[in-house]
Amino acid sequence: MIELQDVSKKYPTGQIALYNVNLKLQKGEMAFLTGHSGAGKSTLLKLIALLDRPTQGKVLIDDFDISQLKRNQVANYRRSIGVIFQDHHLLSDRTIFDNVALPLMISGMRLPDIERRVHAALDKVNLMSKQNDYPMMLSAGEKQRVGIARAVVNKPSIILADEPTGNLDPGLASDIMQTFLQFNDLGATILIASHDQPLIERMGKRIISLQKVKSR
Ligand SMILES: Nc1ncnc2c1ncn2[C@@H]1O[C@H](COP(=O)(O)OP(=O)(O)OP(=O)(O)O)[C@@H](O)[C@H]1O
């Protein structure tokens, strides 16, 4: 379970991105995070992924306050979460296989296991035939799917996605959402930030709406 208790985030610039947010996401739940530009969606995902920390309040995963993780546990925690950004940062001089394999190589997995996992992940996003290609040879939707494969190759129990369909046409956006539904069916807890209101309404899942903090 993911839980935010009275979470506020004020950036060093003085900008208040989140104010007193309370939220519970059950294990295995899939939900959408919506709200206008600047409402704090990306900030909220970053706090859960421990890429940043709240200025007030707590983020709990399975009732454990993640701010209590020791420095040497933080990398492990981050690896246990699949994070998908709109800008997927693929390495241009590496093949699709290598890009997806990267998190497993970093964790020191053996090559035969890496191959098995990468093929399974590429298969789920329907990109097996592209494994030896380079990112520049792929369409925007395919690159986005590589980003998803890389995020799920570690079999994370939590998947966070920040505007994963931002640059895609409606057909591709629906395909990507179907892929998330499949991961959810396999048991992953999923939180997706998106301002594509019609698309997320069609999905029939919980919608969490963030209001922008008024400047005061
Ligand atoms: N690193 C940062 N330093 C200072 N202010 C920031 C930083 N990141 C975000 N902000 C500010 O915090 C507020 C929330 O930003 P955030 O990116 O979380 O919103 P968002 O809902 O994801 O927006 P969008 O839909 O445009 O991506 C905004 O006012 C933004 O300018």
TrEMBL record:
Keyword Lyase assigned: no
SMART domains in the record: AAA
Species of origin: Leucothrix pacifica
Function: Part of the ABC transporter FtsEX involved in cellular division. Important for assembly or stability of the septal ring.
Annotated protein name in UniProt: Cell division ATP-binding protein FtsE
One Pfam family, short name: ABC_tran
Entry's localization field: Cell inner membrane; Cell membrane
Alphabetized NCBIfam families for the sequence: FtsE
Family recorded in the similarity comment: Belongs to the ABC transporter superfamily.
Oligomer status and interactors: Homodimer. Forms a membrane-associated complex with FtsX.
Top-level division of the source organism's lineage: Bacteria
Alphabetized GO MF terms: ATP binding; ATP hydrolysis activity; transmembrane transporter activity
PANTHER family reported for this sequence: CELL DIVISION ATP-BINDING PROTEIN FTSE, IMPORT ATP-BINDING PROTEIN
Gene Ontology biological process terms from the UniProt entry: cell division
Primary site of residence: membrane
A GO term from the CC aspect: plasma membrane
InterPro entries membership: AAA+_ATPase, ABC_transporter-like_ATP-bd, ABC_transporter-like_CS, ABC_transpr_LolD-like, Cell_div_FtsE, P-loop_NTPase
Matching SUPFAM superfamilies: P-loop containing nucleoside triphosphate hydrolases
Primary gene name: ftsE
Membrane topology: Peripheral membrane protein
